[in-house]
Design goal:
- It is a single chain.
- The N and C termini lie far apart (48 Å).
- The protein has strands spanning 15-26, 37-38, 43-44, 53-55, 59-60, 66-76, 93-96.
- The chain contains no helices and 7 strands.
- The protein is mostly beta strands.
- The relative contact order is 0.28.
- Strands 1, 3, 4, 6 and 7 form a 5-stranded mixed β-sheet that branches. A two-stranded antiparallel sheet has the order 2-5.
- The chain has one domain (15-96): Virus Head Decoration Protein, Chain: A, CATH 2.40.300.
């Protein structure tokens, strides 16, 4: 039997408050970082005019590509891995400074 050990830490919280609406999202087409994770706060599918929302939690694509994307709510801009591009149009999301 194969045993894998992982260390878990407190999840990264990108929300400014508990008022949000999210949808399921298949992250298999997103580019993960060197550890194989698409970090919370990633604008999906791309940080451009095609954006539909912001990834709520880290997603380890190889283990389970299912993620959650916030489509309505208040998000702390300083907690995002990259600032939203000028072309991002997410009218139901308020990025808080």
């Amino acid at each position: 039997m194969k045993v894998t050990h992982k260390t878990f830490t407190q999840p990264k919280e990108i929300l400014a408050n508990d008022h949000y609406v999210a949808i399921p999202y298949d992250c298999k087409d997103l580019t993960p970082n060197a550890e194989g994770i698409v970090p919370a706060g990633t604008i999906v599918p791309k940080n451009d005019a095609t954006a539909i929302g912001v990834l709520l939690w880290d997603v380890e694509v190889a283990a389970n590509p299912n993620g959650t994307v916030v489509v309505h709510g208040f998000i702390e801009k300083k907690k995002l891995p990259a600032a939203p591009a000028d072309t991002v149009n997410l009218p139901m999301i308020k990025f808080m400074d």
